[in-house]
Design a protein that fits this description.
Blueprint lengths: L1 E6 L11 H10 L4 E5 L9 H9 L5 E4 L9 H13 L3 E4 L3 E3 L3 H33 L14 H10 L5 H8 L3 H12 L1
Parallel strand pairs: 1-2, 1-3, 3-4
Antiparallel strand pairs: 4-5
Length: 188
């Protein structure tokens, strides 16, 4: 049996890494059963990947579109591959090829996993540096930008004198929960 695994780390996953694109590539490479995890960027656990690993047995093949979809770091990647090869499962990572249990196969896997981990670490570092620079700029505010202006919120809160939260939400388009939160904030 040929199994596939696809995952995305964020909602806005870049082109080439969407679940649909990965699934298509996996099917083109023989995967008949595909396990998928969504939004795994900040999570250690990948429930579908764990289920997949439990489903694999001798003679099966695991196909993954790219190495960075397979393992979070070098140590995890090597450990998982060694376990799979030990069970008699073939591992085919499409952007590097079939991983075999030879010294050369192990070397290639280790080097590629190290580069993938390095790339991820560099992305995190650049993101943190960018956030630090942004925080020093005038007018910076932590968090999501306000959806409604002060004038809009003042108007909506003033309507609460004559109307219910539900009616004000209907009239203004501002959700009831936002109105409740804003009203509470103004009372404190």
């Amino acid at each position: 049996m040929v199994y596939g695994y696809a995952s995305v780390s964020t909602i806005g996953q870049v082109k080439g890494n969407s679940l649909e694109e990965q699934e298509s590539v996996l099917k083109d490479n023989g995967a008949s059963i595909i396990y998928k995890d969504n939004f795994t960027g900040t999570k250690k656990t990948r429930p579908e990947f764990t289920k997949l690993l439990g489903s694999l047995s001798a003679g099966d093949t695991l196909v993954v579109s790219k190495l960075d979809r397979f393992a979070r770091n070098t140590i995890d990647g090597i450990t998982i591959v060694q376990q799979l090869l030990g069970k008699g499962v073939k591992v085919n990572i499409l952007n590097i090829g079939i991983i075999d249990n030879t010294p050369t196969g192990k070397l290639i896997l280790t080097v590629m996993l190290a580069f993938a981990e390095f790339e991820r670490d560099m992305i995190v570092q650049r993101t943190q540096e960018g956030k630090a620079i942004t925080k020093t700029k005038e007018g910076f505010r932590e968090g999501r930008p306000k959806k409604y202006s002060k004038v809009q919120m003042d108007h909506a809160i003033s309507l609460l004198k004559d109307y219910s939260y539900n009616k004000v939400a209907e009239l203004t388009g501002i959700s009831k929960s936002t109105l409740l939160r804003e009203n509470k904030r103004r009372k404190n």
